Amino acid sequence: MGTILTSGPTYEEMRNPATLPPALRKRALEVAHGDPLDPLNLFNITWKNRENRVRHVVLLKELTGVAANVIVLLARDFPSGSHKVGPAYTTLIEGELAGEIHPGRNTIIGPSTGNFGIGTAYIARLMKYRCVVVMPEQMSAERYERIRRYGAELDLTPGSESDVILVLERTRDHYRKDPQNKVLAQFELLPNYRFHRHVTGDAALEAAKGVGNGRVAAFVCAPGSAGTLAAGDEIKSRFADAAIVAVEPQECPTLTDNGRGTHRIEGIGDKMVPLIHNVLTTDYVARVHDDDCVAGLKVLEHGRGVLEKTLRLPAGALDRLGGWFGISSVCNIIGALKAVKLLGLGAGDNVVTVATDGFDRYPSVMADLEKRRGPIGDDTIASWYEEIFRGASPANILDVRPAREKERLFRQKREVWTQFGYQDAYLEQMKSQAFWDAEYARIGEIDRGVAAGRKLPSP
Mean pLDDT across the stretch 362-375? Predict the structure, then answer.
């Protein structure tokens, strides 16, 4: 049986697990790969490895074809396999701290298109809650399998990634009315914002230390819930001139012009401006073709030998990339390359992006790619690499710094969220950075409450 805890880490301990009691840190690391369902894994929710270094990779410049450093944070080794587990945990722990929920009494509802649903199912299992994940019916088979493995129930809605509004409607109409349900609506969760601003933002800054000039010139990330983009607020607090670039599918350019459409990039492009997207700190929106991300994953996962020959790299030079990327990860990398060219970044400059999960969630998507495209040989791999990665250009990028663009994004946010009960007065507060800073400042109080109520296992 797993260890029984009454709570987990503070925000600060997730940001810097070296602040955990040494015996607890040691025991948590011991169960990380031995027993993934031991509740001690709550203390492994961090970007840091056992040496307390941020898990990341700096892509070889021979591969990227640009002089700037492209730094990718690696989320695959988070418990449950994605950094989305962090906001799921912080939402539950804040709910327990406020006395709103209790194991055995409340059911956790997780509306999602994948990784957040997996994270919700996982955290609910470790914290002893019944869980229902609401998600579209056309996501990868691996997502459904992982959610069921953690003991959660699935409620599938029509459509795919771009039909997440149906997930939100199902959640509103079928689950919110029951006071025993706690809805972890990732698009609305301020604990999601707090986690990524404090934990992911710090990881991005630390990963850049010792690389190039040590600064972050740009942070690039596709918004699903827009939680990860909150890292940009932390980065800007350190480097005010850093550019924050959101990436979205060309086939669903919602942030660009309120466009709607179906696409294949699981985890992003949800036909809305999420409630917790602080559009004040987003500078650009880059558009990427969805199938470039799927084909690009094929290149990086199964075409590394071809790339080594093409780029005249030593055999095995790209082995360390194996397994670390998913479809949205490739989307972020393409967006990073576009940002480098848009901003004219050169040697010494650093762009940070995120690999939100690993390849283990996409074999079925790769099988579908081969069905759609036919046999994929070495020549195809080489051609796709040139077109997708070397061919990434600063085209299809919108500057959203002007006031008129901010106001347009606020209007789009209002159109969605007033339908789900949010008042104009509350939405109006989000037009001020003071709103976001005040929400972030709650971390100190929350951490004190978590630490005071926590019962740690005996050494």
Answer: 86
